[in-house]
Specification:
Elements: E1 5-9, H1 14-25, E2 29-34, E3 53-57, E4 72-75, H2 82-87, H3 89-110, E5 113-119, H4 146-166, E6 170-175, E7 178-179, H5 190-200, E8 204-207, E9 213-215, E10 217-218, H6 219-231, E11 238-240, E12 245-247, H7 248-259, E13 265-268, H8 283-289, H9 297-308
Parallel strand pairs: 1-2, 1-4, 2-3, 4-5, 5-6, 6-11, 7-10, 8-13
Antiparallel strand pairs: 9-12
Helix pairs in contact: 1-6, 3-4, 5-7, 5-9, 7-9
The protein binds uridine-5'-diphosphate (UDP).
């Protein structure tokens, strides 16, 4: 699938901008829509002048109109860092609910395929490990993470309703912790925090005792998986992430080793409802997409820390 006209909401965000780059590289034309509350035009370096690229500064929680034909609508707009959950909770709920409704409406009007960026957060603090797509999750709707988790759960529900009720052609991906170049230095998530802290010789801020686990996916692997799902016939949801699980403490040690930093470890309080463990079951992704991740955490961290140190991508 190439030579398509694709709308990417959140196109100036971390994942959205990588997606725009990959779509342009394969010959698609891209309309990126972003309100820039967490995205940045800096993320569009190298593509903003591309002849097949258009940027629209707009909030998809409001009405969204894109002139001309559209083959696919990829809804990636949403703040996704836990530090944003307290800072901009209403915007997160709105983009997951109203923004999803508006972008579904756009896809329906255009007869386009719809692709929803959902999240491992729909599993909450999971009691089933690793998490298969069949697990319904363990989410606290009232806690600080509920604004993101429930917005994305609603987004999945309305996407499936459009699919069943209107016959809309949809895909749903559940994205697990992803990292790489173009994360904001102040994004607040663990990989960027640790790398930025290590490079500056500042203390590494471990939440709790650091024994909680995550499974970190390098952005190039992630985007390859997203495009494989977009091009497939499978509705989803499909987990896309990396199956190798690390404690936060192990991540800190790796970052220190890779950057050669002598930063000390600082143990801070653990955020409310911080999931204790997370690892994707990738059986479905392997069987329906023939996709698997290829970049190890060591390799991905080396690339990402080179980028944060002012080097190039890759
Ligand atoms: N974390 C940490 N130090 C930080 C930022 C995050 O120890 O400076 C922890 C966080 O509490 C969580 C894990 O790292 O247990 C992953 O956090 P992140 O914000 O990257 O994403 P999450 O998976 O929680 O959405």
């Amino acid at each position: 699938m190439a030579d398509q006209r694709v709308v990417v909401t959140g196109g100036a965000g971390f994942l959205g901008s990588h997606l725009c780059r990959s779509l342009l590289a394969r010959g698609d034309s891209v309309v990126a829509v972003d309100n820039l509350i967490t995205g940045s035009l800096d993320n569009l370096t190298g593509i903003s002048g591309h002849r097949d690229f258009t940027f629209v500064h707009s909030d998809v929680s409001n009405f969204l109109h894109v002139p001309g034909p559209v083959d696919a609508v990829l809804h990636f707009a949403s703040p996704a860092s836990p530090v944003d959950f307290d800072r901009i909770p209403i915007q997160i709920l709105k983009v997951g609910s109203l923004g999803t409704h508006n972008t579904l409406g756009l896809a329906r009007e255009k007869g386009a395929r719809y692709f929803l960026a959902s999240t491992s957060e729909v599993y909450g603090d999971p009691l089933v490990h690793p998490q298969p797509e069949t697990y319904w999750g363990n989410v606290n709707p009232l806690g600080p993470r509920g604004v993101y988790d429930e917005a994305k759960r609603f987004a999945e529900a309305i996407t499936m309703a459009y699919h069943r009720h209107h016959g809309l052609d949809v895909r749903i991906v559940r994205i697990f912790n992803t990292y790489g170049p173009y994360m904001r230095p102040d994004d607040g998530r663990v990989v960027s925090n640790f790398i930025v802290q290590a490079l500056a010789g500042k203390p590494i801020t471990i939440h709790g005792d650091g024994k909680q686990t995550r499974s970190f996916s390098y952005v190039d692997d992630e985007v390859r998986g997203l495009l494989a799902l977009l091009d497939s016939d499978y509705v989803g949801p499909v987990n896309i992430g990396n199956p190798t699980e690390f404690t936060v403490l192990e991540l800190a040690e790796k970052v220190l080793a890779i950057t050669g930093s002598s930063s000390e470890l600082r143990f801070d309080p653990r955020p409310v409802d911080d999931p204790t463990q997370r690892r994707p079951d990738l059986t479905l992704a392997r069987s329906v997409l023939g996709w698997k991740p290829e970049i190890s955490l060591d390799e991905g961290l080396a690339r990402t820390s080179r980028w944060f140190a002012g080097g190039s991508v890759g």
